[in-house]
Design a protein that fits this description.
Blueprint lengths: L1 E4 H17 L3 H13 L3 H20 L9 E9 L2 E4 L3 H15 L23 E7 L4 E8 L1 H4 L3 E5 L5 H15 L7 E9 L1 H11 L11 H15 L14 E11 L4 E8 L6 E4 L1
Parallel strand pairs: 1-3, 2-4, 7-8
Antiparallel strand pairs: 2-5, 5-10, 6-9, 7-9
Helix pairs in contact: 1-4, 2-3, 6-8
């Protein structure tokens, strides 16, 4: 058994909130390079160049890569051999988000109640997903999610008779209909199976997969390619201004489901698909 004081959790979350907003993952930046090479529109190529410059400027100066620093989504994998002391785990994570957003001069975009709409002025609450895993460590991933893209989420409760082609069409159509709203080129996360809420979780989690990695199952890898082909053939293009690269990647995460259902959730992310992870 390993003892960890929750103050360490707070410190890690604080740091990850800033790092996620300042530094894009290396695989995503490389996708910008590949996208610029593949893009056939001169304006689209120029937009990719601006995206790369913005990414590098944010990293050099420790400033947010986008003005919408998002709502903090936190994934925590807590080892079952960890003994937490000093307070409640969820409170420690929330405090880390509060400190990270205030100390990092990140935009405070969260309201405490969905109808009263009063800003909490510290970007809390965050959305926390906690899982218990083997071992004596804690792994935390912070993934800020802006709402230009989050608002483009889509769900469909397919019947078990749905074909692969129908599912691919639904995913692609949701992305194409989104147009310029999610600031393309986009990253597409898809949850398939489980229940409606499980599929939504899987779709969000799918956005953490490196953009240069396909599903290891050939069935889903082929579906991912089919979605990308359809979305990139739409002509929406970078920032919705026309072009041949509308999406950078598609990640489908499947899960077992009931014999009577087939939930599908699409979670679209903008080109700054941010996430940073650390371990205690």
């Amino acid at each position: 058994m390993r003892t960890i004081d929750v103050s360490e959790v707070t410190g890690l979350v604080r740091r990850l909130c800033m790092e996620a907003n300042y530094y894009l993952p290396a695989d995503l930046r490389q996708a910008f390079v590949r996208g610029q090479e593949a893009e056939q529109s001169p304006l689209g190529k120029e937009i990719f160049g601006e995206m790369l410059a913005n990414c590098d400027l944010a990293r050099r100066n420790d400033v947010p890569v986008c003005q919408d620093t998002g709502m903090a989504i936190v994934f925590a994998e807590v080892g079952q051999e960890v003994h937490l002391t000093g307070g409640a785990f969820e409170d420690a994570v929330t405090e880390g988000v509060r400190r990270g957003y205030i100390d990092g001069y990140l935009r405070l975009s969260v309201v405490g109640d969905p109808l009263r709409r009063e800003n909490t002025n510290d970007n809390t609450p965050c959305v926390l997903y906690t899982s218990i895993v083997a071992g004596d460590k804690i792994k935390i991933t912070v993934a800020p999610k802006g709402f230009g893209s989050e608002n483009m989420s889509a769900m469909k409760m397919f019947t078990p008779a749905a074909t692969r082609e129908q599912i691919v069409d639904f995913i692609a159509d949701a992305c194409i209909r989104a147009g310029s709203n999610p600031c393309p080129p986009i990253v597409i996360g898809v949850g398939l199976g489980g229940t409606s809420d499980k599929a939504a979780y899987l779709a969000k989690r799918a956005l953490l997969r490196p953009v240069d990695r396909q599903n290891e199952d050939p069935l889903y890898a082929e579906m991912e390619r089919a979605v990308l082909d359809k979305v990139n053939a739409s002509g929406v293009g970078p920032q919705g201004l026309g072009g041949t690269v509308t999406a950078l990647s598609c990640a489908i995460e499947p899960f077992g489901t009931h014999i009577a259902g087939l939930p599908c959730v699409v979670n679209i992310s903008c080109h700054v698909t941010r996430h940073a992870e650390g371990e205690l």
